[in-house]
Design brief:
Number of helices: 24
Number of domains: 4
CATH superfamily of the largest domain: DNA ligase/mRNA capping enzyme
Structural class: alpha+beta
CATH topology of the largest domain: D-amino Acid Aminotransferase, Chain A, domain 1
Strand order of the largest sheet: 1-17-16-13-14-15
Oligomer: single chain
Bound molecules: zinc ion
Radius of gyration: 28 Å
C-alpha cells in the first residue's frame, strides 16, 4: 500500500489539475520504494517536467506553487534516499525550469539568473540561518525581508545608463529577448537618471543587469478580467498568468494596453561593482534614484529569532498589499558576504524564498451533488464531512466538471485533502487512495438533469455538461436570483428560499413575473409576516427605477457583464430603445440583438416595460466620479487602500495601477514613490486624502 495522493487542484475557479504523488505533508514511507522500482522517481520527474512546461512556457500553471514545491521536495527526498533508483530513472536534476518559447531570439545572461531556494516552516528558516552562520563564521547576521512579487521574472540591462535589453530567465543561462515588449512598460525608463529627484548625483555603472518582476496589480487584474468577461473572453486565472501571458505577446500594442508594472529587487552583473551600495537595504533607494521602482516595503532582522518573528509579522500584513505576492524573500543584507557565499547550480546560497502555505485539512466525501447554473451548466460539488480549515468550517468543495472527476477518479467515501486559499472556493487537492473503502465505486455523471430530468448535453469543444432546457426549474430560479441580486436590480430581502417557493408555486417564471406579485403571495407562499411582505412589495416597486445598466446586466445575456451593460445603457438610454436597436456594428449590440431575436427573451423585456419598469438611463445617483480614472499611491492617513478603492468604485470611478494620460487624479499618501513624479510629469491632478474626500462629497 502506498500513501500516495493524487493531486487534483483548482488554483482558481477555472483551472483544474492533476499530479501524481505527494503533498508537502504526505508521509514518505521509505519501505514502499525499493531500489529495484525506480518508477515513482521517474514518474515524479515526468510530472514535474509537465508542470514546468505549463508554468514556464505556457504561462498556464495548473497546480499551486505549494503543491509544486511539495513535488520537488518529495523528489529530492526520494533521490537522496534511493540514489541507485534515482540513477536508473535517468537524468536526475530538476533545474530551474525553462521559459524559452522559441518565439523570440535568445540572449545570454552575463550572470546566471537563478531561482530561489524555498522554505515553508520555522525549521526551514532556522536551518537557512544556521548554514549561513557556519559559512560566514559569525552569528551576527542581518537580513532584508521583502515581499515576493508573484509575476514574471526578467533581467533588464542598462549600458552607461541606457536601456538596451530585457531577457526572460530562460534556463538560467540564456532566455528570450523580450526587449521590444519591456520597452512598453512604464516602469522601465529609456535612460537612468544621473541626478536624482532629491538632488543627489548618481554614479551610473558601465553595465548593469537589474533583476525584476513584471506583474499586474490586483485592481488592474480585476479591471482587465471584467473587460474580458464582458467581451466574452475567458478571464485570466491569476495576475501571474496575465503578466506572463502578456509579456510574451508578439504584438507590443497588447503589452502596452495591459498596464504591466515592474519592480526591481536585485542585480545580476554590475560593472564596476562599486556602483552598487554595500548593503542590500540600500538597493531600493538606489533604484529609486535611477528613476525606477524598487521593492516598496521591506523589513530588517538580525539573527534567527528576530528573523522568524519578523517573517510572521510581515506575512500578516500581506493581505493589504495591492500587488500579488506568493511569500517573502529573505536576503543576506551584506553584499560582500553574498559574493563570498555564491550560488549552487540552481539558487544563490544567500537568499531564501519563504512561502506561506494555504491551510489544508483531510476529510471524507459524503456525496457528490450537481448544481444547475443560470446558463444550464452542471457543476459537480463534493459534499464533505464538515472540517475546520484555517478557522472556517468547510462542508463543500467544487469538483469543477465531469472530466475532472473522471480524471482524478474521486469517489463517494474517499478521504480527500481540502485546501482553502483566500476567498477562493475550497478545492480538493488530493485523494488518499490508501484509505478508499473497498465498496467505493467510480462516480457516474448523470445523463439527465437533476432538476428537470431531461437529457444533458455536451457541446463540442466544451468540457461543460449542460441542461439545454430553458424552462428547467433550476435555471429559472438561478436566472431570477441573478436578476434580483446586486449584479442585477438589487431587490433586497428576496432570497433564494423565497424565489424557490414562488417558482415551485408557479407564481414566477421569469424576471417580469416579479412585478405581478401580490401581497398575498408573500404571506401565503413565502410565509412572510405582514411587515416583511410590505417590505418585499416596496423593494420590488423601488427596483422599477434602478439604473438601466442593472436591468441589462440582470437579464443575464451571455457575454454581457458589468462593463458592457454600462456601455450599452449609456448608448441606448431606455429598454424601449434597446428593443428597437438593430444589429449594429458594436459587438455588445450584436450580442444583445441575437439575444432579443429569441421571442421569449423579447417577451420578458416587453413585459418589464408593460409592468411599469422605467429605469433611468444615467449611472448610479452616487456616480460623482463616473468616467474618472484614479491611481492610489503611498499610505493614506485614515483610509486603507481597499476602502479608498471601494469608495472610488462605488462613486462610478475606476482604479488603475499605473499612471497614463487617461489618469484623471492621483491620490497621494505618505511615501508615494515614483508615481507622484510621473503624475507631475504628465500634469495629472494630485490629491491628498482630504482633497479626495472632498471630491467624493461632490465639493
Ligand atoms: Zn434541467
Amino acid at each position: 500500500m502506498r500513501a500516495i495522493y493524487s493531486i487534483v487542484r483548482a488554483g482558481h475557479r477555472l483551472v483544474c489539475v492533476v499530479a501524481i504523488l505527494g503533498l508537502a505533508t504526505a508521509a514518505i514511507h521509505a519501505a514502499e520504494f525499493s531500489a529495484a522500482t525506480p518508477s515513482p522517481i521517474a514518474e515524479l520527474r515526468a510530472e514535474i517536467a509537465r508542470h514546468d512546461e505549463l508554468y514556464h512556457r505556457k504561462a498556464a500553471p495548473v497546480i499551486s506553487d505549494a503543491e509544486y514545491d511539495g513535488l520537488k521536495r518529495r523528489l529530492r527526498s526520494l533521490e537522496t534516499q534511493f540514489p541507485a533508483a534515482a540513477a536508473i530513472a535517468g537524468s536526475a536534476l530538476i533545474g530551474i525550469g525553462d521559459d524559452r518559447t522559441g518565439l523570440f531570439a535568445t540572449r545570454h545572461h552575463r550572470t546566471r539568473m537563478l531561482s530561489l531556494e524555498k522554505g515553508h516552516t520555522e525549521a526551514d528558516l532556522r536551518a537557512f540561518h544556521a548554514r549561513l552562520v557556519r559559512a560566514l563564521g559569525s552569528g551576527d547576521i542581518s537580513y532584508v525581508i521583502e515581499p515576493k512579487f508573484d509575476g514574471f521574472a526578467v533581467s533588464v540591462t542598462y549600458e552607461k545608463g541606457v536601456f538596451v535589453r530585457a531577457v526572460t530567465r530562460g534556463d538560467g543561462t540564456e532566455g528570450d529577448d523580450i526587449t521590444t515588449n519591456v520597452r512598453r512598460i512604464r516602469g522601465v525608463p529609456g535612460t537612468l537618471r544621473t541626478v536624482a529627484s532629491d538632488g543627489t548625483v548618481n554614479a551610473l555603472p558601465d553595465v548593469i543587469e537589474l533583476r525584476g518582476e513584471i506583474y499586474v496589480s490586483w485592481p488592474d487584474f480585476a479591471r482587465l478580467n471584467a473587460t474580458r468577461e464582458a467581451a466574452g473572453e475567458p478571464p485570466f486565472a491569476t495576475p501571474r498568468n496575465l503578466a506572463a501571458g502578456t509579456i510574451r505577446q508578439t504584438d507590443p500594442a497588447v503589452v502596452e494596453a495591459r498596464e504591466l508594472e515592474i519592480v526591481f529587487h536585485g542585480v545580476g552583473a554590475c560593472v564596476p561593482g562599486s556602483a552598487l551600495p554595500r548593503q542590500h537595504r540600500e538597493f531600493s533607494v538606489q533604484v529609486g534614484r535611477w528613476g525606477m521602482r524598487g521593492v516598496p516595503e521591506f523589513r530588517i532582522a538580525r539573527g534567527a529569532d528576530e528573523l522568524w518573528a519578523t517573517v510572521q509579522a510581515f506575512g500578516r500584513a500581506r493581505e493589504g498589499w495591492p500587488y500579488p505576492t506568493d511569500g517573502l524573500v529573505i536576503k543576506l543584507d551584506d553584499l560582500a558576504a553574498q559574493q563570498e557565499l555564491g550560488a549552487t547550480e540552481t539558487a544563490p546560497r544567500w537568499a531564501l524564498a519563504y512561502k506561506f502555505a494555504s491551510p489544508q485539512a483531510e476529510t471524507t466525501v459524503l456525496g457528490i451533488t450537481l448544481q444547475v447554473g443560470r446558463t444550464g451548466v452542471l457543476t459537480p460539488v463534493a459534499e464533505l464531512a464538515p472540517v475546520e480549515i484555517g478557522g472556517v468550517t468547510v462542508a463543500r468543495a467544487s469538483l469543477h466538471n465531469r472530466d475532472e472527476i473522471a480524471r482524478e477518479d474521486i469517489r463517494i467515501g474517499d478521504t480527500v485533502r481540502v485546501e482553502r486559499a483566500g476567498e477562493i472556493i475550497p478545492s480538493i487537492v488530493g485523494v488518499n487512495r490508501a484509505r478508499r473503502p473497498a465498496s467505493a465505486e467510480p462516480f457516474e455523471f448523470p445523463a439527465s438533469c437533476p432538476s428537470c430530468g431531461l437529457p444533458v448535453e455536451c457541446r463540442s469543444g466544451e468540457v461543460a455538461v449542460r441542461c439545454g432546457n430553458f424552462d428547467c426549474p433550476a435555471q429559472v430560479r438561478r436566472r431570477i436570483e441573478h436578476f434580483v441580486s446586486e449584479d442585477g436590480v438589487g431587490i433586497v430581502g428576496l432570497g433564494p428560499a423565497a424565489i424557490d417557493a414562488l417558482v415551485a408555486a408557479g407564481r414566477i417564471n421569469d424576471a417580469a413575473d416579479l412585478y405581478g406579485l401580490k401581497r398575498e403571495d408573500f404571506l401565503r407562499i413565502v410565509g412572510a409576516g405582514p411587515p416583511e411582505a410590505g417590505r418585499l412589495q416596496a423593494a420590488i416597486e423601488t427596483s422599477k427605477t434602478r439604473e438601466l445598466r442593472r436591468f441589462i446586466q440582470g437579464l443575464g445575456i451571455p457575454r454581457v457583464g458589468a462593463v458592457a451593460a454600462r456601455e450599452v445603457a449609456r448608448r441606448h438610454r431606455s429598454l424601449a430603445v434597446l428593443l428597437a436597436a438593430a444589429e449594429g456594428s458594436d459587438p455588445a449590440d450584436r450580442v444583445i440583438a441575437t439575444y432579443l431575436a429569441e421571442p421569449r427573451h423579447r417577451r420578458i423585456v416587453e413585459r418589464l416595460i408593460a409592468a411599469g419598469v422605467k429605469p433611468p438611463p444615467g449611472d448610479d445617483g452616487a456616480g460623482v466620479l463616473a468616467g474618472r480614472v484614479f491611481v492610489l499611491t503611498g499610505t493614506l492617513p485614515n483610509l486603507t487602500r481597499a476602502q479608498a478603492m471601494a469608495r472610488i468604485e462605488a462613486a462610478g470611478g475606476i482604479v488603475a495601477g499605473g499612471i497614463t494620460r487617461a489618469t484623471s487624479h492621483v491620490v497621494v499618501g505618505v511615501d508615494p514613490g515614483v508615481k507622484l513624479e510621473q503624475a507631475r510629469a504628465l500634469g495629472v491632478e494630485v490629491l491628498d486624502e482630504a482633497g479626495f474626500v472632498r471630491l467624493l462629497a461632490g465639493e
